[in-house]
Design goal:
single chain; mainly alpha; Tetracycline Repressor, domain 2; about 60% helix
């Protein structure tokens, strides 16, 4: 276990930022308060000028860390998916039964998030809300192909690959393993959003979680009883 954790680090692609926000107190304040401000006013209304006012710093100081707010959103998304991947590694490393491993993986990647005390400047519960509501804005752009080529989304794609490999351990002949793996992550965000904002068009309610639905969907697809 110690060896697994020592080889795993929550890290974000360096080309996303101008200066690593984890390298300074100001950088960590930028991350902490950007999460809180985006959650409060939404990404569309969010600006570096407003963030600067929140942290008592010049707008120009934020640009030293991020080229624009789009890059900041990609950073937050990448950090979140790396953190989820970290949870996945911890929760599944000792499970040898492929079915139980996949079940735990689905639970870990789709459950309601609780705050992690290891990262005091990042509120994972609030960040999860941002990912549910704003994540698609990080890639629904004209620049997505170039950004994908530059590796901006490699952590998300790596997480999909981990899930795909678990699916193939159960059914090595299943020809849609990658599609099913990416569906797990995307469907979780969508169902959490519907549950919170459009409850009339989802069966996910107070006593039925997106995790339960997705587990049922995947297990029925793979004919797991």
């Amino acid at each position: 276990m110690d060896k697994i954790l020592s080889n795993f680090k929550i890290a974000v692609q360096e080309s996303i930022y101008n200066k690593d926000p984890e390298s300074s107190e100001l950088g960590r304040r930028i991350i902490e308060n950007s999460i809180l401000l985006i959650d409060k006013i939404g990404f569309d209304a969010f600006t570096f000028k407003k963030l600067g006012a929140e942290i008592g710093s010049n707008e120009s100081s934020i640009y030293r860390y991020f080229e624009n707010k789009h890059k900041l959103l990609i950073y937050l998304s990448s950090w979140y998916w790396s953190w989820i991947e970290y949870q996945l590694v911890i929760e599944t490393h000792s499970i040898t039964n492929p079915v139980e491993k996949l079940k735990k993986a689905i639970e870990t990647t789709t459950k309601t998030i609780k705050e992690d005390s290891k990262y005091t400047h990042i509120n994972e519960v609030v960040l999860n809300r941002i990912i549910i509501e704003e994540h698609s804005k990080s890639f629904l752009t004209k620049e997505v192909d170039q950004e994908n080529q530059d590796g901006y989304f490699k952590i998300y794609k790596r997480l999909v690959t981990r899930l795909k490999e678990m699916i193939l351990q159960i059914d090595g002949d299943y020809e849609y393993a990658t599609t099913l793996a990416s569906t797990i992550l995307k469907t979780a965000l969508h169902q959490h959003f519907l549950k919170d904002h459009f409850p009339s068009i989802t069966d996910c309610k107070e006593h039925v979680s997106p995790t339960q639905f997705i587990t049922d969907l995947v297990f029925r697809t793979l004919n797991i009883t």
